[in-house]
Every structure is written in C-alpha cells, then in structure tokens.
Amino acid sequence: MSSGHGHGGHGRRPKKHEEEEHENHERWAVSYADMMTVLVGLFIVLFAMSKVDEVKFEQLRQSLAIGFGNEAPSMLNGGSGALTGLSAFEITPDLANSTSVPTDETITPETTLAPETVLTEEQKNYDLAVTEYNRLEAIAELLAAKLAAQALDDRVRFSVTSRGLIVGMVADDVFFRPASAELTPTADQILDAIGPVLRDLSEEISVEGNANTLPAGRNYATNWELAADRAVQVLRRLVEVDGMPGNRIAATSFGDQRPLANHEGDALAVNRRVDLVVLSPAPDSIKQYLPAVAAAAEKR
Fold first, then answer.
1. Residues 107-120: what's their mean pLDDT?
2. Do residues 77 and 128 both lie within one domain?
3. Which CA distances in Å does 17 have to 14, 20, 73?
4. What is the enclosing helix (H) or strand (E) of 160?
5. Would you say residue 173 has pLDDT above 80?
6. Prior bond to 259 cis, omega within 30?
7. Mean of the pLDDT values across residues 140-160?
8. 68 and 177 within one domain
9. What pLDDT, in 10s, does the model give residues 86-99?
10. What does the alpha-carbon distance between residue 272 and residue 213 come to, in Å, rounded to a whole number?
11. Cβ 88 vs Cβ 76: under 8 Å
12. How many Cβ atoms are within 10 Å of 228's Cβ, its own excluded?
C-alpha cells in the first residue's frame, strides 16, 4: 500500500521567467541629432553663399570637414589659388537653383553694384550751395508774386550773391527823386507788398543805401548822408508800417562807392537805389559757391 501522494515526487516545474526587452525611450534623440546636423550644414552652406569670398569658403570647408568627422584638408581640390567663384567648389546637393543668390552666370553689369562715390569737401559744399540757392530763389519767387499781383514786378531786380538774396529797388525816380530821401508813393506800395514776406523770414535784412556821383544837394553834406538817409527811410517803413522786427534789420550807407553802372547816363538812374539784402545764414565755405551756382542757373 502506498503511503499516498507526496509533494516531493512529480511536482509542477516552475515556469521559466523571461525578461522583457528594455524599451529605449531615447532613440528619438539620435534621429533628432542627425536632423539637426543636416540642418546646421544646410544653413552654413546658405550663409556661405550669401557672400562669395575666400575667407568664408575656407571657414565652410573646415566646419563641414570637422562636422562630418573628416580631417580638414589643407587646400581645396581643383583650386590653383584664391577662390574666385562657385565654379572652384562644388557642394551636393546643388543649391544654386533653389536660392535667389546669383551665380557667376547670372551676374550682369546691371546687377553689379558700383563702388561708392566719395565726394570731396569742395563737392559737398557746392551741393549745399545749390540747396541754399534754391531756397533763396524760392524767396525771390514769393516776393515777385506779391509784386506781380499789383503790377509792380518790373520795378524790382533780384539776384543771388555770396551774401544772399539781393532785392534791388532800382527804377530811376520811382523810389527817390534826385537829391532826396523821401519815399515816393510807388516806393511805399512796393515796400508794403514785400514787407510781410520779409517780416516772416528768419534771416536778417540789410538795407543798403546808394547814390550816384552827382552832388548830394543843399540838404546833405555828401552822398554818404544822402544814401544813409534813403536806407533809414526804407528801414523805418518796414519796421513802423509793415511790422519788421527791429532786431533783424539794419541800415547801411555806401554813398556813391558801389555803382552798378560806370557810364554817367546809366549811373544817374541805377546807382540811385536801395538794396534789401536777405543775408544767407550758411557758412562762408558754402556761400562762396553761390555766385557760381547762380551763373550756372542763368545758363539753363
């Protein structure tokens, strides 16, 4: 008789424990690193192609060689000296057709930038003088328009000199009678027409009296006093009637020392005058070119 079932006989064999394969959660990092390496290489190529020169291609060559694990060669294959264009170096893939960077074949004289023009100090000052001349001419045109509205534009002459804009009140007996500093009604009308324009400017105004070579008459000792009185009468009209600020205007006498005409017949008329000078605030280095600019403008 058997003693019964024992636990040490034919017991169950324990199942073999199989370890699960460890899942690598960081495999994406390898793909990501590969992709970033390709992108970095691409951007390096694009950056290098933005400006073709020897230094940049040398940097590109070394970075690509080191980045892909190759020892940087000492020189580019196929090159015999300084790199002069894309034809001495080939990159795969060819990016020439996928970018807007011009190659050697697409560069034309029209797309090549000319070297920057370097102006001399004299050329710069001349250009500034042209700008100042145009500004003074604009003032003259505004004054002429005011006079033309009253049919008086033929009684005043305009000119640009190294001092500024000269408004010449030259018209025989229109402004002053012989040996007299009293303003005529026509002179008052002209001054009242241009006075508001001169008043609104920021420049200083010089009123310069002149006389011809005839004796000044019994009321004045010399032509100096006669010319000075004429300038003062014009100044007073502009200040007292037309509102010109007194700190922007001055009167000067030149007597008979600055004639516009040397012939006695002409001198009697044109030298009996008063000039209103709109003084240019430009530096002397610029104003010295104003006569040349004015002469060139008259020829056009």
1. 56
2. no
3. 9, 9, 56
4. strand 157-160
5. no
6. no
7. 93
8. no
9. 444 444 444 444 44
10. 9
11. yes
12. 21
**Sheet with strand 249-253: strands edge to edge:** 157-160, 164-169, 274-279, 205-209, 249-253
- Burial of 194 (C-beta count, 10 Å sphere; 0-12/13-18/19+): buried
Considering the domain architecture, whether residues 125 and 78 belong to the same structural domain is answered as no
CATH of the domain at 190: 3.30.1330.60
**Structure tokens, 283:** 């530096």
Q: List helix spans (H) across the chain.
A: 27-49, 54-67, 121-148, 185-200, 223-240, 264-270, 284-287, 290-299
Sequence letter at residue 52: V
The reply to whether 2 falls in a domain is no
Report the DSSP beta bridge partners of residue 168.
157, 275
Total structural domains within the chain = 2
Provide the CA 161 distance to its chain's centre, in angstroms. 24
Judgement on whether residues 293 and 221 belong to the same structural domain of the protein: yes
Burial classification of residue 250, based on how many CB atoms lie within 10 Å of its CB (0-12 exposed, 13-18 middle, 19 or more buried) = middle
For 31-54, write each residue's pLDDT tens digit: 888 888 888 888 887 776 665 566
Do both 81 and 207 map to the same domain?
A: no
The domain of 38 spans 28-88
**Side-chain half-sphere CA neighbours of 113 within 13 A:** 3
Co-location of 62 and 203 in the same domain: no
